[in-house]
Amino acid sequence: MFGVNRTALTAATTIADALADPQILRHEPLSGRARPQSLAGGAVGIALLHIERARTGHGDEARVHAWLTHAASEPISAGPNANLFHGAPALGFALHTAAMPRYRRALAALDDKTTTLTRTRLATAHGRIGRGDRLQMREFDLIHGLTGLGVYHLHRHPTHPITGEVIAYLTRLTQSPGGTDDLPPWWMPVGLSGEPDADFPLGHGNLGIAHGISAVLALLSLAILHNIPAAGLQDAVARLCEWTDQWRTDEPAGTWWPGYLTVEQARSLAPPHRPRPSWCYGISGTARAQHLAGLALGDTARQHAAEAAILATLRNPAQLALLPGIGLCHGQAGLLQSALRTAVDARNTAIAAELPDVATHLSAQLAQPITDPELMDGAAGAALALHAFGTGAAPVSPWDAVLLLG
Asked: 2 Cβ partners below 8 Å, 6+ apart?
Protein backbone atom coordinates (compact mmCIF):
# COMPACT_ATOMS: atom_id res chain seq x y z
CA MET A 1 0.00 0.00 0.00
CA PHE A 2 2.87 2.38 0.81
CA GLY A 3 5.55 0.91 -1.41
CA VAL A 4 8.44 -1.37 -0.51
CA ASN A 5 11.15 -0.06 1.81
CA ARG A 6 14.31 -2.07 1.26
CA THR A 7 16.14 -0.66 4.27
CA ALA A 8 13.44 -1.82 6.66
CA LEU A 9 13.22 -5.23 4.98
CA THR A 10 16.99 -5.64 5.26
CA ALA A 11 16.93 -4.76 8.95
CA ALA A 12 14.12 -7.27 9.54
CA THR A 13 16.00 -9.94 7.58
CA THR A 14 19.14 -9.40 9.64
CA ILE A 15 17.17 -9.97 12.84
CA ALA A 16 15.38 -13.01 11.41
CA ASP A 17 18.70 -14.54 10.39
CA ALA A 18 20.10 -13.93 13.87
CA LEU A 19 17.02 -15.70 15.26
CA ALA A 20 17.14 -18.59 12.80
CA ASP A 21 17.93 -21.33 15.31
CA PRO A 22 15.87 -21.98 18.46
CA GLN A 23 19.12 -22.93 20.18
CA ILE A 24 19.64 -19.23 20.86
CA LEU A 25 17.17 -19.74 23.72
CA ARG A 26 19.07 -22.65 25.25
CA HIS A 27 20.30 -20.51 28.16
CA GLU A 28 16.87 -19.00 28.89
CA PRO A 29 15.16 -20.20 32.10
CA LEU A 30 12.30 -22.58 31.39
CA SER A 31 9.84 -20.62 33.47
CA GLY A 32 7.39 -17.75 33.13
CA ARG A 33 7.31 -15.79 29.88
CA ALA A 34 10.55 -17.39 28.65
CA ARG A 35 8.98 -20.85 28.43
CA PRO A 36 8.77 -22.23 24.88
CA GLN A 37 4.95 -22.13 24.90
CA SER A 38 4.91 -18.41 25.77
CA LEU A 39 3.93 -16.00 23.03
CA ALA A 40 5.22 -12.94 24.87
CA GLY A 41 8.74 -14.14 25.59
CA GLY A 42 9.18 -17.66 24.29
CA ALA A 43 9.45 -19.67 21.09
CA VAL A 44 5.80 -19.22 20.08
CA GLY A 45 6.26 -15.48 19.73
CA ILE A 46 9.51 -15.74 17.78
CA ALA A 47 7.84 -18.27 15.48
CA LEU A 48 5.42 -15.51 14.40
CA LEU A 49 8.33 -13.61 12.83
CA HIS A 50 9.35 -16.58 10.70
CA ILE A 51 5.72 -17.36 9.84
CA GLU A 52 5.05 -13.86 8.50
CA ARG A 53 8.30 -13.88 6.53
CA ALA A 54 7.53 -17.28 5.03
CA ARG A 55 4.03 -16.23 4.05
CA THR A 56 5.31 -13.09 2.31
CA GLY A 57 8.04 -14.96 0.43
CA HIS A 58 10.92 -13.63 2.53
CA GLY A 59 11.57 -16.71 4.68
CA ASP A 60 11.28 -20.47 4.59
CA GLU A 61 9.03 -23.05 6.21
CA ALA A 62 11.98 -24.95 7.70
CA ARG A 63 12.62 -22.14 10.18
CA VAL A 64 8.92 -21.96 10.96
CA HIS A 65 8.83 -25.67 11.71
CA ALA A 66 11.97 -25.53 13.84
CA TRP A 67 10.51 -22.80 16.05
CA LEU A 68 7.07 -24.37 16.31
CA THR A 69 8.65 -27.71 17.19
CA HIS A 70 10.61 -26.01 19.96
CA ALA A 71 7.44 -24.25 21.13
CA ALA A 72 5.76 -27.65 21.50
CA SER A 73 8.75 -29.26 23.22
CA GLU A 74 7.08 -29.26 26.65
CA PRO A 75 3.58 -30.28 27.79
CA ILE A 76 1.21 -27.59 26.52
CA SER A 77 -0.97 -26.03 29.19
CA ALA A 78 -4.73 -25.90 28.84
CA GLY A 79 -5.24 -25.17 32.53
CA PRO A 80 -5.63 -22.08 34.70
CA ASN A 81 -2.49 -20.40 33.31
CA ALA A 82 -3.44 -20.89 29.65
CA ASN A 83 -4.41 -17.79 27.68
CA LEU A 84 -3.77 -16.11 24.34
CA PHE A 85 -0.18 -15.51 25.39
CA HIS A 86 0.56 -18.90 26.94
CA GLY A 87 -0.22 -22.55 26.39
CA ALA A 88 -2.77 -24.09 24.04
CA PRO A 89 -4.30 -20.82 22.78
CA ALA A 90 -0.88 -19.28 22.09
CA LEU A 91 0.42 -22.29 20.17
CA GLY A 92 -2.92 -22.70 18.40
CA PHE A 93 -2.84 -19.08 17.28
CA ALA A 94 0.67 -19.54 15.87
CA LEU A 95 -0.35 -22.69 13.98
CA HIS A 96 -3.35 -20.83 12.60
CA THR A 97 -1.18 -17.99 11.30
CA ALA A 98 1.18 -20.51 9.70
CA ALA A 99 -1.69 -21.85 7.55
CA MET A 100 0.18 -25.08 6.74
CA PRO A 101 -1.68 -28.37 6.15
CA ARG A 102 0.92 -30.30 8.16
CA TYR A 103 -0.42 -28.71 11.37
CA ARG A 104 -4.11 -29.38 10.73
CA ARG A 105 -4.48 -32.24 13.23
CA ALA A 106 -2.52 -30.51 15.98
CA LEU A 107 -4.50 -27.33 15.45
CA ALA A 108 -7.81 -29.17 15.73
CA ALA A 109 -6.73 -30.58 19.09
CA LEU A 110 -5.67 -27.13 20.30
CA ASP A 111 -9.00 -25.71 19.10
CA ASP A 112 -10.83 -28.23 21.26
CA LYS A 113 -8.72 -27.45 24.32
CA THR A 114 -9.09 -23.70 23.85
CA THR A 115 -12.86 -23.97 23.38
CA THR A 116 -13.19 -26.06 26.53
CA LEU A 117 -11.18 -23.67 28.69
CA THR A 118 -13.06 -20.70 27.21
CA ARG A 119 -16.42 -22.20 28.16
CA THR A 120 -15.17 -22.92 31.67
CA ARG A 121 -14.08 -19.31 32.10
CA LEU A 122 -17.28 -17.95 30.60
CA ALA A 123 -19.29 -19.91 33.16
CA THR A 124 -17.15 -18.50 35.97
CA ALA A 125 -17.45 -14.96 34.60
CA HIS A 126 -21.22 -15.09 34.23
CA GLY A 127 -21.45 -16.45 37.76
CA ARG A 128 -19.41 -13.53 39.04
CA ILE A 129 -21.65 -11.03 37.25
CA GLY A 130 -24.74 -12.74 38.62
CA ARG A 131 -23.43 -12.43 42.18
CA GLY A 132 -22.68 -8.74 41.68
CA ASP A 133 -18.97 -9.15 42.45
CA ARG A 134 -16.46 -6.71 41.01
CA LEU A 135 -14.55 -7.56 37.85
CA GLN A 136 -11.04 -9.00 38.14
CA MET A 137 -8.38 -8.21 35.56
CA ARG A 138 -7.56 -11.80 34.69
CA GLU A 139 -11.21 -12.54 33.95
CA PHE A 140 -11.47 -10.25 30.96
CA ASP A 141 -8.20 -8.69 29.79
CA LEU A 142 -6.32 -9.30 26.55
CA ILE A 143 -3.20 -10.85 28.03
CA HIS A 144 -4.74 -13.32 30.49
CA GLY A 145 -8.48 -13.22 30.05
CA LEU A 146 -11.53 -13.71 27.88
CA THR A 147 -10.80 -10.82 25.53
CA GLY A 148 -7.62 -12.61 24.50
CA LEU A 149 -9.50 -15.88 24.05
CA GLY A 150 -12.04 -13.95 22.00
CA VAL A 151 -9.22 -12.86 19.69
CA TYR A 152 -8.33 -16.51 19.18
CA HIS A 153 -11.87 -17.55 18.33
CA LEU A 154 -12.68 -14.54 16.15
CA HIS A 155 -9.69 -15.21 13.92
CA ARG A 156 -9.70 -18.98 14.10
CA HIS A 157 -13.43 -19.70 13.56
CA PRO A 158 -15.60 -16.57 13.50
CA THR A 159 -18.84 -18.48 12.89
CA HIS A 160 -18.30 -21.04 15.68
CA PRO A 161 -20.79 -20.68 18.57
CA ILE A 162 -17.95 -20.08 21.04
CA THR A 163 -17.04 -16.84 19.27
CA GLY A 164 -20.55 -15.49 19.75
CA GLU A 165 -20.52 -16.64 23.38
CA VAL A 166 -17.39 -14.60 24.13
CA ILE A 167 -18.81 -11.55 22.34
CA ALA A 168 -22.06 -11.92 24.30
CA TYR A 169 -20.11 -12.01 27.58
CA LEU A 170 -18.12 -8.88 26.68
CA THR A 171 -21.34 -7.15 25.68
CA ARG A 172 -22.84 -8.07 29.05
CA LEU A 173 -19.70 -6.75 30.74
CA THR A 174 -20.53 -3.25 29.49
CA GLN A 175 -24.05 -3.26 30.95
CA SER A 176 -24.62 -1.56 34.29
CA PRO A 177 -25.91 -3.98 36.94
CA GLY A 178 -27.95 -1.15 38.48
CA GLY A 179 -27.83 -0.06 42.10
CA THR A 180 -26.21 3.04 43.55
CA ASP A 181 -22.59 2.42 42.52
CA ASP A 182 -21.46 5.25 40.25
CA LEU A 183 -18.48 3.34 38.88
CA PRO A 184 -18.74 1.45 35.57
CA PRO A 185 -19.06 -2.35 35.57
CA TRP A 186 -15.52 -2.69 34.21
CA TRP A 187 -14.03 -0.94 37.26
CA MET A 188 -11.57 -3.26 39.03
CA PRO A 189 -10.97 -3.39 42.81
CA VAL A 190 -7.23 -3.96 42.32
CA GLY A 191 -4.06 -2.17 41.26
CA LEU A 192 -2.37 -2.13 37.87
CA SER A 193 -0.82 -5.56 38.50
CA GLY A 194 -4.25 -7.12 38.90
CA GLU A 195 -3.60 -7.64 42.60
CA PRO A 196 -4.70 -5.61 45.66
CA ASP A 197 -2.54 -2.51 45.93
CA ALA A 198 -2.30 0.06 48.73
CA ASP A 199 -1.81 2.76 46.10
CA PHE A 200 -5.24 1.89 44.68
CA PRO A 201 -7.36 1.20 47.78
CA LEU A 202 -10.57 1.60 45.78
CA GLY A 203 -9.22 0.02 42.63
CA HIS A 204 -8.90 1.62 39.22
CA GLY A 205 -10.47 2.03 35.82
CA ASN A 206 -8.12 0.78 33.13
CA LEU A 207 -8.26 2.33 29.65
CA GLY A 208 -5.23 0.47 28.32
CA ILE A 209 -5.38 -2.18 25.63
CA ALA A 210 -3.21 -4.80 27.36
CA HIS A 211 -5.22 -4.99 30.58
CA GLY A 212 -8.12 -2.58 30.16
CA ILE A 213 -11.33 -1.63 28.47
CA SER A 214 -9.73 -0.51 25.19
CA ALA A 215 -9.17 -4.19 24.45
CA VAL A 216 -12.89 -4.87 24.83
CA LEU A 217 -13.69 -1.84 22.67
CA ALA A 218 -11.30 -3.05 19.96
CA LEU A 219 -12.54 -6.65 19.95
CA LEU A 220 -16.23 -5.72 19.92
CA SER A 221 -15.52 -3.28 17.09
CA LEU A 222 -13.72 -6.00 15.15
CA ALA A 223 -16.69 -8.30 15.75
CA ILE A 224 -18.94 -5.71 14.09
CA LEU A 225 -16.50 -5.37 11.20
CA HIS A 226 -16.48 -9.19 10.86
CA ASN A 227 -20.30 -9.22 10.82
CA ILE A 228 -20.59 -11.35 13.95
CA PRO A 229 -24.29 -11.51 14.89
CA ALA A 230 -24.71 -10.56 18.55
CA ALA A 231 -27.53 -8.83 20.37
CA GLY A 232 -26.62 -5.40 21.70
CA LEU A 233 -23.16 -5.36 20.12
CA GLN A 234 -23.33 -1.86 18.65
CA ASP A 235 -24.88 -0.51 21.84
CA ALA A 236 -21.98 -1.99 23.83
CA VAL A 237 -19.42 -0.27 21.61
CA ALA A 238 -21.36 2.99 21.91
CA ARG A 239 -21.37 2.72 25.73
CA LEU A 240 -17.62 2.23 25.83
CA CYS A 241 -17.12 5.15 23.46
CA GLU A 242 -19.30 7.37 25.64
CA TRP A 243 -17.28 6.52 28.75
CA THR A 244 -13.86 6.88 27.14
CA ASP A 245 -14.96 10.17 25.56
CA GLN A 246 -15.20 11.64 29.06
CA TRP A 247 -11.45 11.17 29.38
CA ARG A 248 -10.34 12.24 25.93
CA THR A 249 -8.09 15.28 26.24
CA ASP A 250 -7.52 17.61 23.28
CA GLU A 251 -4.33 19.65 23.54
CA PRO A 252 -2.25 21.66 21.07
CA ALA A 253 0.27 18.80 21.23
CA GLY A 254 -2.40 16.27 20.28
CA THR A 255 -5.36 14.27 21.53
CA TRP A 256 -4.80 11.55 24.12
CA TRP A 257 -6.59 9.21 26.51
CA PRO A 258 -5.31 8.24 29.97
CA GLY A 259 -4.01 4.78 30.68
CA TYR A 260 -5.92 4.42 33.94
CA LEU A 261 -8.01 6.33 36.49
CA THR A 262 -8.27 6.38 40.26
CA VAL A 263 -11.63 6.65 42.00
CA GLU A 264 -10.91 10.27 42.86
CA GLN A 265 -10.24 11.13 39.24
CA ALA A 266 -13.30 9.24 38.03
CA ARG A 267 -15.69 10.90 40.47
CA SER A 268 -14.36 14.43 40.07
CA LEU A 269 -13.60 14.18 36.34
CA ALA A 270 -10.12 15.38 37.33
CA PRO A 271 -7.69 15.24 34.41
CA PRO A 272 -5.18 12.39 34.79
CA HIS A 273 -1.63 12.47 33.47
CA ARG A 274 -0.76 11.78 29.86
CA PRO A 275 0.82 8.33 29.42
CA ARG A 276 3.77 7.72 27.15
CA PRO A 277 2.62 6.68 23.64
CA SER A 278 3.18 2.96 24.12
CA TRP A 279 0.90 0.16 22.93
CA CYS A 280 0.01 -1.18 26.37
CA TYR A 281 -1.31 2.01 28.00
CA GLY A 282 -0.76 4.83 25.53
CA ILE A 283 -1.77 6.24 22.16
CA SER A 284 -0.50 3.24 20.21
CA GLY A 285 -3.23 1.14 21.80
CA THR A 286 -5.96 3.56 22.86
CA ALA A 287 -6.08 5.53 19.59
CA ARG A 288 -6.23 2.37 17.48
CA ALA A 289 -9.10 1.06 19.62
CA GLN A 290 -10.95 4.34 19.06
CA HIS A 291 -10.19 4.12 15.34
CA LEU A 292 -11.64 0.62 15.11
CA ALA A 293 -14.73 1.81 16.98
CA GLY A 294 -15.12 4.65 14.51
CA LEU A 295 -14.87 2.23 11.60
CA ALA A 296 -17.36 -0.15 13.21
CA LEU A 297 -19.94 2.53 13.99
CA GLY A 298 -19.42 4.58 10.84
CA ASP A 299 -18.37 7.45 13.10
CA THR A 300 -16.07 9.50 10.88
CA ALA A 301 -15.45 12.11 13.58
CA ARG A 302 -14.09 9.39 15.89
CA GLN A 303 -11.92 8.02 13.10
CA HIS A 304 -10.52 11.48 12.42
CA ALA A 305 -9.79 12.12 16.12
CA ALA A 306 -7.91 8.83 16.43
CA GLU A 307 -5.93 9.48 13.26
CA ALA A 308 -5.08 12.99 14.43
CA ALA A 309 -3.88 11.59 17.77
CA ILE A 310 -1.53 9.13 16.06
CA LEU A 311 -0.32 11.77 13.61
CA ALA A 312 0.42 14.31 16.34
CA THR A 313 2.43 11.71 18.24
CA LEU A 314 4.46 10.78 15.17
CA ARG A 315 5.29 14.45 14.65
CA ASN A 316 6.23 15.16 18.26
CA PRO A 317 9.90 14.44 19.08
CA ALA A 318 9.21 14.82 22.81
CA GLN A 319 6.61 12.05 22.66
CA LEU A 320 8.81 9.78 20.56
CA ALA A 321 11.62 10.25 23.08
CA LEU A 322 9.39 8.65 25.71
CA LEU A 323 9.75 5.34 23.85
CA PRO A 324 13.48 4.58 24.03
CA GLY A 325 12.94 0.82 23.71
CA ILE A 326 12.43 -1.28 20.59
CA GLY A 327 9.50 -3.41 21.71
CA LEU A 328 5.89 -3.85 20.70
CA CYS A 329 4.59 -3.46 24.24
CA HIS A 330 6.58 -0.51 25.57
CA GLY A 331 8.64 0.69 22.63
CA GLN A 332 8.76 2.13 19.14
CA ALA A 333 7.76 -1.08 17.35
CA GLY A 334 4.32 -0.88 18.94
CA LEU A 335 3.87 2.70 17.76
CA LEU A 336 5.09 1.83 14.26
CA GLN A 337 2.73 -1.14 13.90
CA SER A 338 -0.25 0.74 15.32
CA ALA A 339 0.41 3.71 13.05
CA LEU A 340 0.81 1.44 10.03
CA ARG A 341 -2.48 -0.33 10.75
CA THR A 342 -4.20 3.01 11.25
CA ALA A 343 -2.70 4.36 8.03
CA VAL A 344 -4.02 1.37 6.07
CA ASP A 345 -7.57 2.22 7.15
CA ALA A 346 -7.13 5.98 7.45
CA ARG A 347 -9.06 8.83 5.94
CA ASN A 348 -5.91 10.89 6.58
CA THR A 349 -3.05 10.04 4.20
CA ALA A 350 -0.54 12.06 6.23
CA ILE A 351 0.13 9.24 8.70
CA ALA A 352 1.88 7.12 6.07
CA ALA A 353 4.31 9.95 5.35
CA GLU A 354 5.54 9.93 8.96
CA LEU A 355 6.27 6.19 9.17
CA PRO A 356 9.74 6.23 7.54
CA ASP A 357 11.27 8.31 10.33
CA VAL A 358 10.07 5.89 13.03
CA ALA A 359 11.21 2.90 10.98
CA THR A 360 14.64 4.45 10.38
CA HIS A 361 15.16 5.08 14.09
CA LEU A 362 14.01 1.56 14.96
CA SER A 363 16.31 0.05 12.33
CA ALA A 364 19.25 1.93 13.83
CA GLN A 365 18.44 0.58 17.27
CA LEU A 366 18.29 -2.96 15.92
CA ALA A 367 21.77 -2.60 14.46
CA GLN A 368 23.04 -3.16 18.01
CA PRO A 369 23.66 -6.73 19.25
CA ILE A 370 20.46 -8.53 20.24
CA THR A 371 20.05 -8.68 24.01
CA ASP A 372 16.40 -9.72 24.05
CA PRO A 373 15.00 -11.89 21.23
CA GLU A 374 11.37 -12.04 22.38
CA LEU A 375 8.17 -10.90 20.68
CA MET A 376 6.65 -8.34 23.05
CA ASP A 377 9.68 -6.41 24.30
CA GLY A 378 12.45 -7.65 22.06
CA ALA A 379 13.92 -8.05 18.61
CA ALA A 380 11.36 -10.45 17.12
CA GLY A 381 8.49 -8.01 17.61
CA ALA A 382 10.54 -5.07 16.34
CA ALA A 383 11.52 -7.07 13.26
CA LEU A 384 7.86 -7.89 12.58
CA ALA A 385 6.92 -4.21 12.67
CA LEU A 386 9.81 -3.32 10.36
CA HIS A 387 8.86 -6.17 8.03
CA ALA A 388 5.29 -4.88 7.79
CA PHE A 389 6.52 -1.37 7.03
CA GLY A 390 9.08 -2.75 4.59
CA THR A 391 6.48 -4.68 2.61
CA GLY A 392 4.26 -1.59 2.58
CA ALA A 393 1.13 -3.42 3.69
CA ALA A 394 -0.72 -4.98 6.59
CA PRO A 395 0.55 -8.43 7.63
CA VAL A 396 -0.38 -11.44 5.52
CA SER A 397 -0.60 -13.58 8.63
CA PRO A 398 -2.76 -11.96 11.31
CA TRP A 399 0.12 -11.85 13.80
CA ASP A 400 -0.77 -8.40 15.16
CA ALA A 401 -4.23 -9.62 16.11
CA VAL A 402 -2.60 -10.49 19.44
CA LEU A 403 -2.17 -6.72 19.88
CA LEU A 404 -5.78 -6.07 18.76
CA LEU A 405 -4.52 -3.80 16.01
CA GLY A 406 -6.41 -5.59 13.26
From this structure: 343, 352, 355, 389, 392, 393
